[in-house]
């Protein structure tokens, strides 16, 4: 077996400026590469669609606490930091099974009117933020929308949601010290939401918090107090993921007038369009690194036990072996295979259905309410320097 692999150094300026190109070049050099990640050590990366998909569903590679860069937090918060994202097997399946019913495609469809009401309320406020006819959709629409939606779905009390917006913005900023300082408040907010629902458990409502409290009351061995609080804060914070998807999608549409015109001409195209936008400009560039549970061979390379392994999601989603003309944005595309924008396998994104419906509703309403909307800056100038997540630093538009 050999170990002569292309290397991608994530500290190099050209990679930071354009990770999509660097990842694509690695994909065409071979199915496996080595990432050099500052502060994280060498990581093996599957570059092509087939290999990435298989690895994400392969039990030989597991997520655990070392898959994440965890901030320093007070000792009393530590029990609540171990989320189901770093669990595997039966432990992960038990917790996921408890919350999965709230995130099915059917429940997402039923929640669409609530999402539409939240979208409309935010759009009503947009003109007030438009100085000189220009506004930034990131802080005034794309960021608050997912947090408001997930708070409503999970069951965060109305009066506490502005505080969760602040928490979400802090976490999204990935600022280490600020994130660490926000953790105690996030934990306290989750505990308060659980306590408030427990006090009014007989009232109407099918929110996630209520479902979890009822599950514990029916069988206390199924769910501990620590697990309920951890599930609540993790679901809420993870639920803001559509922020970057919505922002990226708006920038992509406004930068491709032919595709925008096609979508305006055929609104029924929206569900398919959202899938193509996730493939073409979805936020995930890298999968969360897994650990090899034992010595493994990947494409002739010996991967030792404990080695970190990831997938280049953005490269896989533009793999010409899986998608025709993959670098072209085509909202009418009918792919022969599904994208990996929500990952694959046991850790497939729990909120994928909600994210899909939310993005469909958001884009439909934006295009209807502001038919002359245009970017107020070149799309390429708005990209954040982030090799792990495709995201914007701002989304200035004229209405």
UniProtKB/TrEMBL annotation:
<dbReference type="InterPro" id="IPR001128">
    <property type="entry name" value="Cyt_P450"/>
</dbReference>
<protein>
    <submittedName>
        <fullName>Cytochrome P450</fullName>
    </submittedName>
</protein>
<dbReference type="InterPro" id="IPR036396">
    <property type="entry name" value="Cyt_P450_sf"/>
</dbReference>
<dbReference type="InterPro" id="IPR002397">
    <property type="entry name" value="Cyt_P450_B"/>
</dbReference>
<comment type="similarity">
    <text>Belongs to the cytochrome P450 family.</text>
</comment>
<dbReference type="Pfam" id="PF00067">
    <property type="entry name" value="p450"/>
</dbReference>
């Amino acid at each position: 077996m050999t170990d002569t692999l292309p290397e991608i150094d994530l500290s190099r300026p050209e990679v930071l400026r354009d990770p999509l190109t660097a990842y694509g070049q690695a994909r065409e050099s071979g199915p496996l590469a080595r990432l050099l990640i500052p502060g994280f050590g060498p990581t093996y990366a599957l570059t092509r669609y087939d290999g990435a998909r298989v690895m994400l569903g392969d039990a030989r590679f597991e997520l655990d606490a070392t898959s994440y860069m965890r901030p320093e937090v007070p000792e009393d918060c530590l029990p609540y930091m171990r989320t189901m994202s770093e669990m595997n097997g039966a432990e992960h399946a038990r917790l996921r099974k408890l919350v999965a019913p709230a995130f099915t495609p059917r429940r997402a469809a039923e929640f669409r009117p609530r999402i539409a009401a939240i979208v409309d309320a935010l759009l009503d406020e947009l003109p007030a933020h438009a100085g000189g006819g220009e506004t930034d959709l990131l802080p005034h629409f794309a960021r608050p929308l997912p947090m408001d939606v997930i708070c409503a779905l999970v069951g965060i009390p109305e009066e506490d949601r502005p505080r969760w917006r602040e928490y979400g913005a802090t976490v999204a900023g990935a600022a280490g010290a600020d994130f660490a300082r926000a953790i105690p408040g996030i934990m306290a907010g989750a505990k308060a939401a659980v306590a408030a629902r427990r006090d009014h458990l007989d009232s109407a409502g099918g929110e996630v918090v209520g479902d979890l409290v009822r599950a514990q009351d029916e069988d206390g061995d199924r769910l501990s107090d620590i697990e309920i609080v951890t599930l609540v804060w993790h679901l809420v914070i993870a639920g803001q993921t559509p922020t970057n998807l919505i922002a990226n999608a708006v920038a992509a549409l406004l930068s491709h007038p032919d595709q925008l015109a096609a979508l305006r001409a055929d609104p029924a195209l929206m569900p398919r369009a959202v899938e193509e936008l996730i493939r073409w400009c979805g936020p995930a560039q890298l999968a969360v690194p897994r650990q090899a549970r034992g010595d493994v061979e990947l494409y002739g390379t010996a991967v030792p036990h404990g080695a970190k392994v990831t997938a280049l999601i953005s490269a896989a989603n533009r793999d010409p072996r899986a998608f025709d003309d993959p670098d072209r944005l085509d909202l009418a595309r009918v792919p022969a295979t599904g994208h990996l924008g929500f990952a694959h396998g046991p850790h497939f994104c729990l909120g994928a259905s909600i994210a899909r419906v939310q993005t469909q509703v958001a884009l439909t309403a934006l295009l209807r309410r502001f038919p002359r909307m245009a970017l107020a800056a070149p799309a390429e100038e708005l990209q954040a320097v982030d090799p792990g997540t495709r995201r914007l630093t701002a989304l200035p538009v004229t209405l």
